[in-house]
Amino acid sequence: MAEFSLSDLETIIGERAHSGDPDSWTAKLFARGMDKAAQKLGEEAVETVIAAVGGDRQALVSESADLIYHWLVVLGVAGVPLADVLTELERRTGRSGIAEKASRQDRG
Ligand SMILES: N=c1c2ncn([C@@H]3O[C@H](COP(=O)(O)OP(=O)(O)OP(=O)(O)O)[C@@H](O)[C@H]3O)c2ncn1[C@@H]1O[C@H](COP(=O)(O)O)[C@@H](O)[C@H]1O
Question: What reaction gets catalysed by this protein (predicted)?
């Protein structure tokens, strides 16, 4: 399970976004647009902060997962690929080729 990556989740979100599946939370968020997606991201951020400050380790893991999922949905609704964020993070390290290497490892 440790091999599961943010890139995998981005792919799943992309597949579900316009699936038309009435049971898909992802499809619902994409249909309702940025206001709803961003609102959910904000709520999950607050819940993550509460878990962290409260020292609730299990809640912190769970809320972090909710937060990251909703962050990727917001990126998807905005049309911003995860790779753009990774490239920006890599730029800040002052090194090059790290994101590319991670992507190669991701693909096996
Ligand atoms: N990781 C997640 C994930 N994390 C959280 N959530 C959903 O986010 C929602 C947020 O819960 P809340 O209680 O805050 O929201 P709510 O109160 O039900 O909604 P509102 O009242 O705010 O409208 C819940 O419905 C959760 O199921 C997620 N939904 C989907 N995924 C991933 O996306 C994939 C595709 O999901 P579907 O699009 O639902 O098929 C799944 O297989 C997962 O991998």
Answer: 1-(5-phospho-beta-D-ribosyl)-ATP + H2O = 1-(5-phospho-beta-D-ribosyl)-5'-AMP + diphosphate + H(+)
